[in-house]
Amino acid sequence: MTENxxxxxxxxxxxxxxxxxxxxxxVRESRNGTFxxxxxxMEYHSNRFCDHSLLFTVDDGKRIAALLPAxxxxxxxSSHGGLTYGGLIISNHTTAExxxxxxxxxxxxxxxxTQIKKIIYRCIPHIYHKYPCDEDLYALFxxxxxxxxxxxSSAVQIKNPLPTRGRRKLxxxxxxxxxxxxxxxxxxxxxxxxxxxxxxxxxxxxHTLNEITMLHNHFSQNIRLFRVTDEHGATIAGTLIYLxxxxxxxxxxxxxxxxxxAGALYHLCEYLIHERFTNIQYLDFGISTEQGGHxxxxxxxxxxxxxxxxxxxxxxxxxxxxxxxx
Length: 326
Description:
Elements: E1 11-14, H1 20-29, H2 39-42, E2 50-51, E3 54-58, E4 63-68, E5 71-73, E6 76-79, E7 89-90, H3 96-113, E8 118-122, H4 135-142, E9 146-157, H5 172-176, E10 179-183, H6 186-201, H7 209-218, E11 223-229, E12 235-243, E13 247-255, H8 257-262, H9 264-276, E14 282-287, E15 289-290, E16 295-296, H10 298-305, E17 310-320
Parallel strand pairs: 6-8, 13-14
Antiparallel strand pairs: 1-3, 2-5, 3-4, 4-7, 5-6, 8-17, 9-14, 9-17, 10-11, 11-12, 12-13, 15-16
Helix pairs in contact: 3-4
């Protein structure tokens, strides 16, 4: 196949709206792209980021070999600053040698045609890969990239979960007082989420209620809300799930004091693992670190480990493109 030849000619093209359809099709068919890399998701906050996404093509531009969701900020190119992860998205036919060429071409392009001096590269964690896809990690090593952030998330392997420990399982009577509802009543959950984040951390959710409602309208099969209600139907806990091919990621989790005392989140997690998402490989509880990974929230990660979660890394690298390539 042409892709295996060392002399494959790769071209770099900056993304424009005329590439929108081809971009989305490539993401869907790629080894490691998720709905977060679709243009409808990336562009919901386009007013906050200067898009500098790139396409890498072969066969005289007729075929895409890889995509890089990216934004520029001063002298820095980030992949992508508005996404949890946003590394190089590659096809089934893109080889390790091609990925090496892509990284070299990227550095040359930025050095010669832009004012960019460094790349901040957010890797796609391996549990999100639809097929083995770590060629970029090797290229980063060869380019002399520096690991600048390492965040710990906790994931459960759903088909073979570890036994839960710590909190006692809820009795049948306690469970009967709690309901679990999957719906689109984001307002009910956002009130709890906003109050919790303000009280505990003094911050607001990354997404506004209007933004998450709009994103759900675009990605109704991927963005799913689960609420826990009490015997009166009041929402006392919930989670917003980002669902991809392999992973149910708990993007937001929140509970009221009443929900905490009732064990509502414990009950919800047990339901998601053992009943709702048995056809998915992993439930990802999200990160338990702050300050780029330098602070570990021990209480938070312990609660996830008690539910069977074990460490998955969300890594970020920095490439100095003025530095000689290795």
